[in-house]
Amino acid sequence: MPTTEEPINMLSQPLNLPCGVVLKNRIVKSAMSDSLADGQGNPTDAQARLYEKWAEGGVGLSIIGEVQVDPKFPERPSNLVLCEQSNLKKLQSLTSKAKVNGAHIWAQLGHAGGLSHPTISQPKGPSALKIDNFECAGMSEAEVAQLPNIYAKAAMLAKEVGFSGVQIHAGHGFLLSQFLSPLFNHRNDMYAGDILSRCKIIIDIIDKVRSVVGEKFPIGIKINCTDQLEGGLTQQDALSAMSILDKTTIDLIEISGGSYFPGAKSSSDSLTKGPYFIDFSKKAKQRTSIPIVVTGGFKTREEAITSLQSHAADMVGIARALALDPTLANNWLNHTGNNPMFPRFTSVPEGGITAWYTMRLNAIGNDNESDYSLELEAAIETYENRDAARCIQWLAKFQ
Ligand SMILES: Cc1cc2nc3c(=O)[nH]c(=O)nc-3n(C[C@H](O)[C@H](O)[C@H](O)COP(=O)(O)O)c2cc1C
């Protein structure tokens, strides 16, 4: 018989990863591109403070979003970068703060591919593509073959500066998600065709990263169960990808969905009722014994506990709720406090929700979240104007 204690225990159970590392509880702060780097790929004090607050707030694992493996293909000019020009001291200072209280901090290794920020890059995906206003070039076979080395170098740097793991970003329409998607990947070589071939570059990257970071360093992956785009990755293929990943040395699979392709639906902008991907996650659990995090749409402690109790996932990934309340993990673990109050918006421009939460992360990092009260349009304007200024700094450093 379940006891009243059981729900609390589910969230606070430690989790053993295949590499031997133990995460102290089941709450993951999912990657959020926080727009807090300095415009030259390095962390700021406010960014370190943000991650310190989440660690103090009790999360078992925090993933820092969109840490770029190649400054030529960033998502935004406010991303961190792991390359020769990185400021290792500043990165070390960030990771040490983010690890207080026994929290793990992993770097999400990103490469935006065809969705690279056009002002500071020449976007290049698996194939040359032009759809409406979207346009990108295609990578040569030699360029694709170099990717495992590029990811491995970044992963080694991540380890050196104190990240306690890395997550390979293969979701949300960015480069590796583009390889998985028949909409983006029209290649005629070994990286295209059936799902096994479309996974090939991801497997090559995992193998190379593992060979440099060693057996005991956690490697995760974030992957879509649906792109929510016509012609994109299907759920059937996503399930096959789970079976393929099962044969790798990955330690944690995070399931997400949606895409930042212009006009597509992204999870971070979604206002529909969640959690979004529980049904897929249940099916994925039948395909792999690698621990699974399901992310998207969690608003209450009860939803999180139910997902774990029903064996839909091994961990819950939380983004926006942790931007509303950085102490949420402790509240849910100890059953103190309320679930966060989600704001209601009347008119919602595309990208407005994500911009609003991004600016809220900035307020938390600057310790002034209690004064945060932007409207969506103002959030978008602040976010875009600041990044426009950062583009100049980015180009000055990396061009
Ligand atoms: C401000 C913001 C930035 C995000 N940046 C990233 C990112 O860098 N990498 C990523 O994989 N997901 C990113 N996401 C998506 C979240 O990780 C998560 O998948 C999505 O928000 C759904 O979870 P939620 O309902 O708990 O917010 C971002 C979300 C938000 C709100």
What does this protein look like?
The protein is an alpha/beta fold and 399 residues long. It has a single domain (6-398), classed as TIM Barrel (Alpha-Beta Barrel). The chain is built from 14 helices and 14 strands. The chain has helices at residues 6-12, 45-56, 88-98, 141-160, 175-180, 195-198, 200-213, 235-246, 278-287, 301-309, 320-324, 328-334, 352-365, 376-398; strands at 15-16, 22-23, 27-32, 61-68, 80-81, 104-110, 124-125, 129-131, 134-138, 165-170, 219-224, 252-256, 292-295, 315-318. The strands form three sheets. The protein has an eight-stranded parallel barrel, surrounded by five helices. Strands 7-9-8 form a three-stranded mixed β-sheet. Strand 3 (27-32), helix 2 (45-56) and strand 4 form a beta-alpha-beta unit. Helix 4 packs parallel to helix 7. The mean pLDDT is 95. The structure holds flavin mononucleotide. Flavin mononucleotide binds next to strand 3, strand 4, helix 11 and helix 13.
